[in-house]
């Protein structure tokens, strides 16, 4: 149960983030202000949607899921560093640490299921 709750929550976070990267003007502007090129924003959004599919489909092999977890971890760590360097609100950094904790919880309970 903990696996599915954490994984669904993680998936919602990733899908919302991908949606904002595509359609929300403030997110697009903020992404540019962090110094990232536009193509990277689109690439990350697509990769987040792919990661959600991998994590939610039970028949995907464990090793593929592990790569998805690693990629999502890189997303969150990169975002955390970018927001710290940009001197954004501490609340954003705390939120990203919370997202990393959800990611870790999902991964830990994935392995407990197997």
What can you tell me about this protein's structure?
This protein has 114 residues and is mostly helical. It has one domain. 86% of the residues lie in helices and 0% in strands. It contains five helices and no strands. Helix 1 runs antiparallel to helix 3, helix 1 crosses helix 5 and helix 4 runs antiparallel to helix 5. The chain starts with a helix and ends with a helix. The mean pLDDT is 95.
Q: TL;DR of this structure?
A:
The protein is mainly α.
Summarize the amount of helix as a percent range: over 70%
Structural class: mainly alpha
Total of DSSP H or I helical runs spanning 4+ residues: 5
The span between the termini is 14 Å
Mean pLDDT across residues: 95
Range of strand content: under 5%
Q: What profile does the largest beta sheet have?
A: none
The domain count comes to 1
The parts where pLDDT drops under 50 for at least 5 residues are none
List the helices and strands and how they pair.
Layout: H1 2-23, H2 25-33, H3 38-56, H4 62-85, H5 90-113
Helix pairs in contact: 1-2, 1-3, 1-5, 3-4, 4-5
Throw out a few tags for this protein.
86% helix; mainly alpha
């Amino acid at each position: 149960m903990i696996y599915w709750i954490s994984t669904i929550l993680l998936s919602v976070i990733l899908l919302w983030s991908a949606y904002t990267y595509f359609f929300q003007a403030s997110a697009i502007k903020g992404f540019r202000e962090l110094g990232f090129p536009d193509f990277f924003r689109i690439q990350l959004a697509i990769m987040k949607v792919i990661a959600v599919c991998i994590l939610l489909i039970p028949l995907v092999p464990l090793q593929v899921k592990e790569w998805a977890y690693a990629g999502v971890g890189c997303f969150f760590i990169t975002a955390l560093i970018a927001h710290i360097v940009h001197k954004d609100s501490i609340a954003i950094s705390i939120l990203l640490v919370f997202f990393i904790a959800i990611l870790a919880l999902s991964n830990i309970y994935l392995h407990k299921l197997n």
